[in-house]
Amino acid sequence: MERKDIPEQDRWNLEKMYPDKEHWDRDFAEAEKLMEVLPQYPGTVTDSPERLYEYLQLDQKLSMKLDKLYVYAKMKLDEDNRQNIYQAMQDKAMALSVKAAEQTAFFTPEILAKGSEVIERLIDSYEPLKDYRRMFQNMLRFEPHTLNQREESILAMSGEMSETAQAAFTMFNEADLKFPEIQGADGIPVRINHANFIRLMESKDRRVRKDAYEGLYASYRSFRNTVAATLSGSVKRDVFYAKVRHYNSALDEALFADNVTTDLYDNLIQTVKANCDAFQDYLRLRKKVLGLEELHFYDVYTPLVAEENKEIPFEEGFAMVKKALAPLGEEYVSMIQRARDERWMDVRENEGKRSGAYSWGVCDADPYLMLSYQDNLNSVFTMAHELGHSMHSYYSWNHQPYQYAYYKIFVAEVASIVNETLLTAYLLDHSGSDMEKAYLLNQYLDEFRGTVYRQTMFAEFEKIIHSRAEHMEGLTADDMCEIYLNLNKEYFGDAIVYDDEISMEWARIPHFYNGFYVYKYATSYAAAQALAAKILSGDKEALARYLTFLKSGSSDHPNELLKKAGVDLTDPKTIEAIFPVFRERLGELASLLAKK
Questions:
Q1: Which helix (H) or strand (E) holds 360?
Q2: What is the pTM (predicted TM-score) of this model?
Q3: Which residues does the annotation mark as catalytic?
Q4: What's the rounded Cα separation, in Å, for the pair 523 and 413?
């Protein structure tokens, strides 16, 4: 379907950013004019509190324009990737942002060079600067890890070079690596690729699953030494920067930005591993329901319960989401309706449209949602998830000044998972049959497996390989395969057969090139479950705290914001609390499937 054939109500309205390209061009020219003033500030930005505030206002105005220029161009391109005009606009906006980043790079080193005493004195002497106090305090936290100006300049010049390992892996993984063809369930040959691999692993035909699994990992095994070299290079980059910036470890550096200690990271791993018996019970149930003598890794993704072929038109799915999120209060639900009425959502697929879903925007416009709604339950969950992001953005943007308007990645998935959790609870309460309920329970357990057990195992793998690099131990392909296989044995236990292929799974995970990122999926899940449980219990104070959290942006360190909402991720009980629910729902699923 061409985009022009989609009803206007199902297409997002980006005119709040720019009515047309003429307005975009005008803003671009204004951004260039603002940048002409920037060379006046290096070396003088802290001469007086008024001068400092003047620069902050200029930087904010410029940043907002640069954000909007890029986001608009990218979102217009995502509508239809065949529109070369928007590719050119995106490239132009990115180039301007890079130039601006170079011209403003002086600011942080100058602030750190002055030190906290001087900066605090400037803030105290000028009332408008007080709104920036926390921003400066957070900036000054990095003072012990900041080098002199010449050394910082050298490190800055190494930035592009430091991305070589990730760039090499990305080109190899997405462009050069070819996977074999296998025979599909319908007898027609199908070539394995990144987009269809999980779908093939979900096939009811076990031969298809096995062939896809073995075919994909055989391709990676052929280049095992190459991929080990790229991942090792990425790890060594992390270790290098941590060492020169005087952190105890690469893990310490990664956690420092969020003001998180290694205790939280270690607590997650220890608590999840202490509850692997529940996961292994789930695997045994999977083996039993599938009627297998042995459970292999290519049997882990196929659904235990088939989704009913129930068509859910968008308006019906939207109404379902609103009812499910009613525990969040009338204002929250009215904002969801506003998202529909004011066309924040791009609902349908069209020729050339970017695949997948996301929530994005800028704080002086709307938090838009890109969807590819398919009239099925999975699309309803995706809508609820992305609405969680958009509502988090809306509340933060409308209750925080620009410098604190955007929430941190550490808490980015909390609101979206709260919404998914509320939707699951609603659907379980309103399920029309045992098999519908069983499907929902199976979906919940698989989501838990992928978000908690899998991401935590990934987090432990990252910790081990970085530690080995820090102790100058080997990181060959054999080393990585051995480490990864042993971790799988610790998490999966004796509930599965360990085929050779699983030892190569580390080679296909792009997140490993963004060090110590994946643990946030598991911690966000735990936080969201705790918050949703309190909201569903009818605790009005808990709901008020949660809504305050949504309005908080980055006005405090992320875990401090969660503490104010009633969740402390440094407390092992927060992680521990998610497992009784998993066990209970596993038991429910087993009982329902026993009736078949």
A1: strand 358-361
A2: 0.93
A3: 386
A4: 9
